[in-house]
Structures are given as structure tokens and as C-alpha cells.
Amino acid sequence: MSAIWQHRLAERGVDRRLWLLLPATIFVLLLFIYPFLYGLSLSFQPMQGGGVLANYDKFFSDAYQRDTIATTLKIALPAALLNVLAAVPIAFRLRGRFRGKRLLTTILVVPITLGTVLTAQGLLNYLGPTGWLNRVLLSLHIVDNPIRLTNNYWGVFFSLVITGFPFAFLLVLSYLSGIDPTLERAAATLGASRAQRFRRITLPLLAPGLATTFLLTFVLAFSVFPSAVLVGNPAGSTRVISLAAYQAAYEQYDYSYASAIAMVMGAVELVVVAIVLLWRSRLYTGSTGGKG
Amino acid sequence: MTGFDQLRLEGVSRRFGTADALSGLDLTIERGEFIALLGPSGCGKSTALNCLAGLLPLTAGAIWQDDQRIDTLPPEKRGFGMVFQNYALFPHLTVRDNIAFGLRMRHLPKDDVRRRTTEAIETVQLTEHASKLPGQLSGGQQQRVAIARATVLEPSLVLMDEPLSNLDAKLRLEMRTEIRRLHQSLGLTTVYVTHDQEEALSMADRLVVMRQGKVQQIGTPEEVHTKPSTWHVADFMGYRNLLPLKASQMNGDQVTVDLGGTAIRGSAQGAVAPGDDVIAAVRPEDVKLADQGVKGLIEVVEYQGRERAVEVVLDDDVRLHVRTERRVEAGEQVALTVTPGRLLVYPS
Hints:
The complex is a heterodimer.
Chain A: H1 2-11, H2 22-43, H3 54-61, H4 63-94, H5 101-114, H6 116-127, H7 132-139, H8 153-177, H9 181-189, H10 194-222, H11 226-230, H12 241-250, H13 255-280
Chain B: E1 6-16, E2 19-30, E3 34-38, H1 45-53, E4 60-65, E5 68-69, H2 75-78, E6 81-83, H3 95-105, H4 110-123, H5 139-151, E7 158-161, H6 169-186, E8 190-194, H7 197-203, E9 206-211, E10 214-219, H8 221-226, H9 231-236, E11 241-251, E12 254-259, E13 262-268, E14 277-282, E15 287-290, E16 294-304, E17 307-314, E18 319-324, E19 333-338, E20 344-347
Parallel strand pairs in B: 3-8, 3-9, 6-7, 7-8, 13-20
Antiparallel strand pairs in B: 1-2, 1-4, 4-5, 9-10, 11-12, 11-14, 12-13, 14-20, 15-19, 16-17, 16-19, 17-18
């Protein structure tokens, strides 16, 4: 009897090796599930009273708060899209083997190691009102007044591209090298031009990977906080949703309200993720024949 | 079909770094011919095929299709069909869409595309699998899709790169016949790359035997099989006995060699003079166990169904591979004779 049960359980993947999952399960429970549930329940206990949904009511009825959603989306969506779109041609060019590939890849990946603050510092030095770019433009009389590229929307946008692009590039490169190059050669012998090969063969096989890459860079960009303060305009055009949550928590000390804002933030992200995954599920996601 | 009468390869060469993968391939392919490029791995046969397809630029030489020079054209402009070793089916497209791909790239009318695709699917007997993805098919079925995809365009030339090497032995025999049948019924000109001499012999009208990037011999299967031009070709064509011996006597193209103390006559292939070191080549099936002849001791016996493959050591330590229907055992003393005219003597 016990032997039969063991076989049956083993068939479904239940055996003693399952215990190996324990550390990760505890980790996820303690550091993710518990704080999330705690925050969720906190958001339903408003400090000023007024019912379970008072915090959410407060957020959505105040245009100054409500608009942070649109502000954040306006920064995060284009930045994530640009990161993915810029990564494709570069990864396409770099997927083969050639001399100096490692050096080039390293240079492209360096921004990940810099951190947001250093990037912001660099942006201010380079693109600020008295930065190199403006001084060159002024001395060449191309512009009469410094162009404003920092402490506004563009500062945050550049910062997100600089830090997000390397992620996108590395991911796209690995997805692309997972596609068997013989497929394109086969398409060529069947009369497909370079553009047709990309559109009919490479792109459809790459699209699921692009969707995943877009989501990852989007989620990173959506929770933008340091650069929104350092190179943005945190009182106006770059008052992002994480900033609203920060102010609620650490300027007004209303943790309950801050939790509600955090929940709204998560919900918006989930909506975008769901839409993209829905689109992705309609694509071919099987083997792409390559080594990847 | 935009057919050609002749396809000429003139000194086609390809170099990778400092290594010559293919040097000076001269070959004229007539319309409707089935040509096999044959050789061990790394001999340059796949390189030659990729050069023909346009997937590899040449380092020297030219390819002429009648009066038109085509080696500068990209693959999509050549109109040759190609079957890849790993099939290279588009994994995201159904069998039908895979086969229709080339027709669609040509912007043919929808009805034409549908009709020709359906015909091609019927030809390779995949009708009930037409709407499956390649991942759902067996190796043999994928192979047939690859062939249909390459031939539905009725290309002036079909290139096949070891298309059967990923199939099991039984399926390989079936597909061999099928490819030959397709070649005949569609009147396709075919260049077929393989390292399997049996496959090449059974399918091709002409063989091109290659070694280290160079052509060793071009000829009909029979020519290459019975009169290999060098001992390397002989080695590749199943002459398992390659014996380093000394030529003792010449009489026209008849040369006498000393095998285990017995004088044996063979036919000279190339410049051989008495006293030269030579290599004598003979197939295992042309060495017979007899009552008298060259004396030897049986060392290994392999049972192979109707026959036994036997390794015999002669008195002077020369080893001979022999095939026999007789029941023999290791340790037995035997005498051997060579079928007259079947011993080929090459300069070493």
C-alpha cells in the first residue's frame, strides 16, 4: 500500500526533494506576502476614520493625488517602450561573434552598476543649465538661452533610459540569441528580403521576449523615485505616485494612507502587466530552435 | 520554372581565416541532374553548398547560370531551394504556412498559393497534419515539410544538406527513395550533400568526392565505386583493406605485389613502378576464404546475419578484413584469395 502511494505521489512530483522549496517559501512569505497583506489591511484602516474605503476615496477625489497616476504612466510607458525599441536593433547587430564584443557589451551594461544617484549627478553636470551641452550650444550660438533638460520631465526620462536600457539590452540579446540563425537563412533561400525576414520570422519569434522585457523595464520605471526628485520637478511635472506615497508616509506620517497609495500603484502596474500578458498569450511562445 | 541549361562553378573557393575550407571547385551541373557531394566531415562539401545557395560569399571563383554570373546575388535573388540538416522549419508557422512561405514572398495570387501549397502537402502525404506546428511532428514528417517547402517553388536547383542524417536507419531508407522519386517526378536539378557513401551511390547520377577542400574525383556512382581515383577515395568508398605493400613487377597496367609471402596481381591506378611503396586496396567482399592461397590466422569474428566479418592476420602481421558465409571461429588457420581484377594498386 505505502509503495503504491509513494509511486503515485512521485508521479505528481511529490517526494522528499520538495523540502528544498522550504527556504524560498519562507523567504517569499516573510518578505513579500506578509508585508503586502499587512499593507493591504492597513490601507483599510484610515487614521481619520470614515469607513474602510476612506483612504481610496481621499486619493481618487483629490485631483492633485489622482493625477500622479497619469504623470507616472506618462514617464514610465514611453521610457520602457524606448528602452525595448532601442535594444532590438543594437542586440540584432551584436548577436553574432566578433572581436571586441565583450568590451562593447560591458560598456553598454556599465550604467546598471552606476546607481540612480550617480546617473542623476552626471545628468545635471552634462545636461543642466550650466552643463557642458548648454555651454557648447551657447558658445556656438545655436541657442540664445540654455535649453532645459533637467529638473523637468526630460531629466527623469533620460535617467530612466540610461538605467533601464542595459536591462532591456541584455534581455533582448539573450532572447535573440535563442533564435536559430538558420531560420533566417532558410527564409532567405525562400526569397524573403532582409525586411521580410525580420518581419515574418525574427520579430514573431522575438515578440514574447520583447513583451517580457517591456514589462520588466516598465515596472522598474513605474516605481521611479530618486531620479524624479533629483533630476525632475517633484512639485509639478514629475510628481510621481511613489512620491505621493512617500509624502503621505514620511511628511504626514499617515501610514495607512501611504499604504493605500502603494496599493493603487500596484493595481495600476497589474493592469498594464495583464494587458501586455494577454497580448503575449496570443503569440507563439514555443521553441525558437536556438541554443538559448 | 526559370530553369537553366547549365550551372558552372569555376574555381569556387572559400577561406575561413587562414584555412581553405574549399579550394578551386570546378563543376558543371546539367539541368535535371542529381549530384551528390560526398566526403568526410570537414571536407568542404557543406561549404560548397552554402556558396551555391548564396549563404556564404566566395573568396575566389565564379558561379555561372548559363550566361549570367550569380555568385554576387544574395540568396533571395537566386531562386534555389534549400533543405537544411536541422530542417530549419519556422516554429511559429503551421505546416501549411511553412510550405506557403516562399510563394507568399513572391506575392503570388492567393488562389495560386493555396492550390500549389495543397498540392505540395499531398505530394509529401501530410494532408492530415497541415494545420499542425512543426514542433508537433515527428522527425520524418518535419523532413517532408522541409522538402515540400523547398520544392513547392519549383526552383531551378534544390540544395540538400545532409537531410537524412537526423533520421533513424529505417526512415532514412524510406526517405531516400522518396527524395529520388520526387527528383524524378518534378524533374528537379539537385545537389545533395552527404557523408554516407551508400546514400550517395544509390541516389545520385554523378558523385563529387571531396577531401580537405579539394575535389578528389567526379564520376558516375559506378566509376567511383569500381575505380576510385586515389586511395583516399577508395578508403571512403568501402575499400576497408588498404595495405602498404611493395610493387615487385609490372606488366602493362598489371602490377604484382607481395602479400603475406604470396605474389598477387592487381591493376595499377596511377604511376607505379617496380620497387615502389604502394597502397593496395581491396574490399572485404572481394577477399575469399579458400583451400589454398595466402595463409593467415583468424583473430576477430563479427556475426552480421547472412555473413560474418572476419579479421585475419597474415604471417607478416598485415591485417585483412574479409567477409564470408562460412562458419569460422577466432583462432582458426585459413587461406585467402583475392577476386581477380579487384585489387587496386595506388602510389602511396
